[in-house]
Every structure is written in C-alpha cells, then in structure tokens.
Amino acid sequence: MTHNRLFLSTAAALAIGAALALGVSSGTLLSLLTQATIYAVFALGVGLLLRQNGMVSFGHALFFGSSGYIVAILLQLKAVPAEAAIVIAVLGLSAFAFLIGLVIVRVPGVAFGMLTLAVGQMAYLTASRSRGLTGGADGMSVEWPSTLFGLQTSLLFSPAGMLMLSWSVLVLTLLAIALLLRTRFGAITEAARDNEERARFIGIRTLMPQAALYALSAGVTSLAGVLAALNTGFISPESLHWSLSGVALMMVVVGGTRALWGPALGAAVYFLAKDVLGDHAQHWMAIFGTALIVVIVFAPEGLSGILMRLVSSRAKAAGGAAPQTPVAVRTAH
C-alpha cells in the first residue's frame, strides 16, 4: 500500500468512527463500541510485539493498569496537570519497558512469556496490598479536571465523545505504527524475528531494536490504559491481572497478526461474541474458546489473514480474466 492510499484509508477510517459516534443513538451500544475500541488498542500493543518480535507476552496488563494508576495518583496528589500526567504515564512506562526489555528480550520462547507474567503479577500484588497509595483491592477513582487538552471533559465523557476519542487514538496509532514499520527499524525487527542468528552474522545489532519494539508495544498498551481510565473514571488491581493479558492474546489470535489491524478486528469479534453469546449462554467463554480452537487449527493466520487471502485471490482472478477477452474474440473470428 502506497503512502497516499494509507492516508486515504486513515481518513476513511476516521470518517467511519465519526459516523458511528454521531449515528448510533443507543448509549449501551456506544458504550460497547467504546470498550471494544479501547481493547483494540490494547490488543494492538500485544499483537505488535508478536508480529514484529515473535514474542508472546503474558504481562502486558502491567502497562494497561499501571498507566491508569500513575495518572490517578498524580491527579490525586495534584502534582502535575492532567495532560502532563498522561504524558508521564505513557512515556514513563515506555522507558521502563525499554529498560527491562534490554534484559528479557534476550530470553527466547516460553521463558520470555513467563518473565513478563512474573513482572506483571508483581505489579498486581503491589497494587492490591498498597491500600494507602492505590486503595488496595477496592481500587481508586480518577479525579479528572473539568477540561482536558482544551476540551470539556463532560463532552469527552459522553458516550459519543468517548467513542470518537478512542476510535481516533486507535486509527492514528495504526497509522503511526504502519509508517514506522516501513522504515529501517521495521526491516531490522523482521530480520531479527525470522532469523536472529543470521541477522547478527551480517552485522545487525538486534538487542536495541527488540527492546525498543517492546517499549513501543508497552506505550501503545499504556494508551489503552489511559483511555480505560477516562472511560470508567476508576482503576482497580484487576486491570493489572494476567488474565487481562490472556484476553488480549485471545483477541490477537482471533484477529491474526498478518495484517497490522488484525488484533483490532479480533477485539471487535471478541466483544461482539461476548454481547451476543452472553445473552443466550451462561458459559459463553466455553463457546468462544471452542471457536478459538477452530481458528487456531483451521486458520492459524486469523480472521485478518483469511480476509487478506480472499481479497488477494479476487484481485488475481480479476487481473487474470481481463486478457482473456481478446483471445476469445479472435477465436470467434
């Protein structure tokens, strides 16, 4: 996809988000779409790490929940303005992820996943037991000011406003990542993912790019955590639990990582299934888990891979059919 098509696709996606926010009148549906969009950003961070580094993280809930806690604590202490608190949370967690990434990205396979799980659970236990700072298991409210980035928070907190904000963050984040992966950084991380030993042999230093990609993945997930804190006005230790990372991984598997937008599609399917099956089945997770197994076995590239394959096959069929017409005409004559 050329840069022009990429920007046109971004503009079209933003227009779709505006149409949804303005056209949907049901507050319940708007709330569901907002949650799906926020978790799409979360899944995008997890999927980016899997797509470019080939690494599975069970601890990304650390960044999702910690960003909300950092903002809530800074606002409670009145240490900095809300805008600065958001920037500090996202950049601070990205820097923290880079530092620990310099260590844990050296560990391959399952051990990497277990290390991320251990670090994440440490944060969960700390938040659960620090009642004086985080409210402990009861959580804490986020005291947002009346204005944020020059906008009235009452407008942002409306169902349509939150959907538009979350959708815009998702689309613009996808654009930024797509542009970044077209640079040398994207090529280096792909080379390290496919064959790290060969990449090192030809002179590529893989540690720093891999740690930087882990930090970028954490930063994207932190954005989702800030959006979740905006949406609910509340943060609790449950947002740090490893099971939330597991949910994000399920979204990634369902959506696939062949396309950058695959994890976002998986988030939409997950919340749609949760809403539909939850009304008709008490154990909807068992049904969704069965569907997940089917996807893994018969479509390991996920739904995005299936869609891309269908589009590619149709394009090839259309391109191959065009030159046959003159041959048929000549034969008839």
TrEMBL record:
Subcellular location field: Cell membrane
GO MF entries: branched-chain amino acid transmembrane transporter activity
Pfam families with a match to the protein in the record: BPD_transp_2
Gene Ontology CC annotation, any one: plasma membrane
Membrane-topology descriptor: Multi-pass membrane protein
Transmembrane segments: 31-50, 62-79, 85-105, 110-127, 156-181, 211-235, 247-272, 284-303
InterPro entries linked to this entry: ABC_transp_permease (IPR001851), LivM-like (IPR043428)
Name used for this protein in its record: Inner-membrane translocator
Entry keywords, A to Z: Cell membrane, Membrane, Transmembrane, Transmembrane helix
